[in-house]
Design goal:
The protein has 212 residues and is an alpha/beta fold. The chain contains 7 helices and 10 strands. The chain has an 8-stranded parallel beta barrel, surrounded by 5 helices. Strands 9-10 form a two-stranded antiparallel ribbon. The longest helix is centred in the C-terminal third of the chain and has 13 residues. The radius of gyration is 16 Å and the shape is globular. The termini are close together.
């Protein structure tokens, strides 16, 4: 059975839809350049209702120690998603500093991009394969780009792994079928505008995952 993460949640209505639909993980994006940014204090207030019901993920992009410490003390996530250019050594430091598990995002465009996966597995609890953003994008993800899911067919990893990038209620079942993904991640694919989650689309996405 495939499980889902709903990422970039900023409102009680969208979080409640994710929890009601059985999301295994819910994500708070702590990155000011993102339209889904939420500061740790706001995130802590919002996501407290999810504690014990879904894994709470703080999404960061090359965050410094001060921000990571703030996230750890205030938001208290179960996992921190590294969505920037973090090194494996930095990932170890994040784990030590925060006490949280690690999701490392690896941007994918071609088969060669999977070479990093083996090197990252000893340092991450989960891997996430996301589409490389278009040239010139100032965001590392959440832009609706997708990659060829068949590149994952038959691949085996030691860590649980997500498929992300361009997923929607209409195509997630196909993505699961083609890739064999045990986990899927969605953000822009359940929005009506950048950063504006639609509870109905969240429910439809999670139903499509359950039915896949």
């Amino acid at each position: 059975m495939t499980h889902a993460k709903i990422c970039g949640l900023t409102s009680p209505e969208s979080l409640d839809a994710a929890l009601a639909g059985g999301a295994a993980f819910v994500g708070a994006v702590v990155f000011p350049k993102s339209p889904r940014h939420i500061d740790p204090l706001h995130g802590a207030t919002l996501f407290e209702r999810a504690r014990g019901r879904a894994g709470i993920v703080a999404v960061t992009v090359d965050a410094d120690d001060a921000l990571l410490t703030e996230i750890a003390l205030i938001l208290k996530p179960d996992l921190i998603q590294l969505h920037g250019h973090e090194t494996r050594e930095q990932a170890q430091r994040v784990r030590t500093l925060t006490g949280a598990g690690i999701i490392k995002v690896l941007p994918i465009r071609s088969a060669e991009d999977f070479a990093e996966a083996d090197a990252w597995e000893p340092f991450a609890d989960h891997l996430m394969f996301d589409a490389k953003p278009p040239e010139g994008s100032h965001l590392p993800g959440g832009v609706g780009a997708r990659f060829d899911w068949s590149l994952l067919a038959g691949r085996v990893f030691d860590r649980p792994w997500f498929v992300a990038g361009g997923l929607t209620p209409d195509n997630v079942a196909q993505a699961i079928s083609v890739s064999g993904a045990p986990l899927v991640d969605v953000s822009s694919g359940v929005e009506t505008a950048p950063g504006v989650k639609d509870p109905a689309l969240i429910a439809a996405f999670l139903e499509a995952v359950r039915s896949a």
